[in-house]
Each structure stands twice: as C-alpha cells, then as structure tokens.
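Entry type: protein chain
Record version: 2
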Amino acid sequence: MKRMKKLFALLMTLAMVMGLGITAMAEENDANARIVISNEGAAALSYVQLVEADRDNPDGWSIVAGESIFEQHQIDVGDLGDIAKSEKNGDASGTLTTSNELASLLEDLKSLATTTITGNSFTVTSAGLYLVVPVKDGYTYSPTLVYVPVNASGDINVKAKGEPDTITKIVADEDKSVQAGDVINYTVTRAYPYISANYSNPTFTIVDTLTNATFNANSVVVEGAGTLDSDYSVDISGNILTITINYDSTKAGNDIKITYLATVSDNVNKADNPVKNKVVSNTNGTKTGYEVVSDPVKTTIYKVDAENLQTKLAGAKFNLYKGLVSEYQEETTVPVQENIVVGENGEVTIYGLDAQENYYLVETEAPAGYSVDKTPIQLSRPSNWENPTPSTVTETDEDGVEVTTTTYSFNDFGNNGITQVTNTTLSSLPETGGMGTTLFTIAGCVIMISAAGLFFATRKKAN
C-alpha cells in the first residue's frame, strides 16, 4: 500500500495547478473557475469530473466517476485525501507523466470523458479532479488531468500533449530531379509518439523502401531517439531500411530526425522509372506513410536531313555528356550514356536526365549516305528546372496504409521535349572508268600512230 500511496501522491502532484493543499474536512467545495486548454490543435475535447471535495467524508474526497476503475488500480478515497494534501513540485498540469502506472490509469479512465467541450475551455463550479481528453484523426494525445482547488476562481491553464501520427520526408533541393549515379540526401521526420502504458515493452518502427536506388552503407544518422543499440536499432536489407525504436515516454512529443544517402540506379535510364522513396511508421498497428518521387526527365532526338527537315534519318549514333560544350575534350571527356542509336523512325528518346544538370550530344556515326558531324550539340534545359511544380496526393496503398506522395514535375529537355539534329549528304565525287577516259585513250593512240608514221616517212626520204 505504501507503494500505491507514492504513486497516488505523484498523481495529484502532477494534476495540481495551484500549490495549495486543502484539508480533508473542507468548509466549502464550491468553485467558479474556467479550465482553458492550449495546444489542442483543433482536436475535439471532452471531459469528466473524477473526484470532488466532500466535507461529509472523513477523507475529504468522494469519487464521482470511475470508482470501479480506481478500485482496479487499488486507489481509495483515503489515498486521494493524502494526495490532495501534498504540495505541487513545479510540474505543469497536463504534462505527460513518466510513470507507466499513472499513464495506464488515465488511459483506462478516458472513456468516461463524454461531456463535450465547446471551443477550448469550460467552466466548473465544483472543486476536484477533472480528466480532459483531446481526440483528432491522425493524432495521438495523452489524457490530461486537471486539479481545481476549493474556492478556485479565474482561469486554470493546461496544455494538451499530442503529436501528429504522420511522418514526413524531404530531399535536398538539388535532388528533386535525378540521373543514374546521383547520390540523394534524404531527411525523414517523425514526432516521437505517445503510447499508452497498457502496452508491455512497446516499440515502434520506421520502414523506408527505395525504388530504383540503393542505400549507402553507414550513412544513416538518427537524432532524437536516444542511443544506438540501447534505444533503437538500424537494419538495411536490400532496398529496405528498418529503424526499430524502444519506446521511452520521456521523449514523447520530441522530433525524431533520420538522414541518409541513397545512390540512384541505372534503371532511371528506362521509360517511366523515377526514384521512389516510401517511408511508413508503425506505432502499435497504426500506420502512416509518406513518399517522395524524384522524377528524371527526358528528351527525344529527331534526326533529319539538313535540306529537308521533314525527312527523318535512321541509324545515327550519339554519345551523351554532362556539362557544357565548352568543356568537351574528344580524347578525355567521359560520356554518361554511349552508343545511343536512332531508330528506324528517325527518333530516339533519352531517359534518366537530371533537370538541374546541363547535357550535350556528340555524333559518333552518321546515317548511310550522310557525313558525320562531331560538333557538340547543347541540349536546351527545361524551362522550370529551378522551380519544379510539386503535386501532393494522399491515397490508401495496397496494404491499407494512408500515404501522402509528393512528386516534383519538370519539363523535358529541348523544344517541347524535342531536340532536332541535322545531317548533310556526302559530297559528290567524279566517276571513274567512264567515257571521258576512253576519249583520252583514243586521242593518245592517234597521236602515237601519227608520230610513228612521220618517223618512218622521214627516214625513207632520207635514204
């Protein structure tokens, strides 16, 4: 019983707003006070009076609601009288207790709070203990215990303790569009939740799943959850990061911040393959999720005849380089994509481009009958590369988890996504073995025959 009395003393110590004890045989039990709840965040509020001062009771108190629950927790009126006489030790009314036993009691009592509060305050005319319960979808609140002394007047201010169940994720500004090989810097934020003490050794998890990227080993940093191994654990298995946190009520309401690096895979070079990062928080079966989509962009190359732009040419090959054409050195600059082949329709689409980067093309092979032009061709950057248009939707995924997804959309490289590259035909060369050579041959033979005839005629005349 001594142990329980100590617990009950803590109960009242935390609940009392004013540092005045009252006697067990109070002369008055009237009050004219207003209880004002702050930090309620538009939650629906309700209350119940649990205990009232009673001068006809030798202990000075009477239980007016939840008597059976108090009995289950081995609390009687005498214990409450001792608690009432204890002095306040500086804890603000409504704060979350670190006592698991007290938290468990309040959780069991909160179902009794059925009187609705209009706005964020209500007036009381009876001294005693009141339980205020905030409720809001997507939030977890701790029941708030309020003490109203005898003859209290004016405002009694209490603070509701609660945090959103949601989890958020952001990426660094330069990583909202990506290309293969990019290293993305992710930050995940989750409020440390409130978990009832009714649960034995509670834990909660944060699970992060990558699509078209891989986690960088040893890059995970967790802040606000305590010490690694003793307070939380980190596990990376393939493209899934799991952080398991051992619940500590003293941290409730603080922010947990998780940062890590991920490397974009070559899959983003294929059509419709953005990098997706989905994080889901699971607190005693309550799951919430957030997803960030880092969208690569593309450009479509039209290979055309320089003399007739409507004529598309097949078979050309290109290398793609990152940077400006002024940086190109044929012997040393390394391409980011090689041997990009123009299809039979005279087109090829290059995927996996980063809207925040510069790119240029160099032709390595021309279509049949056309000359190779190795002059680097700078791609025109997306018009919104500095200011992407984010879209956010909230949907329920295949596992029944409500997930908020933010996607950053960019325009494509080129003119409306098209980069036109021209080729010129090969220069004409003189024919060989044709009629012109025959005439020269005949003329040469005639000259030789004439020269021989003159030689023999001149010799005969001389003889």
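Comment: The chain has three domains: 2-161, 167-290, 297-387+414-423.
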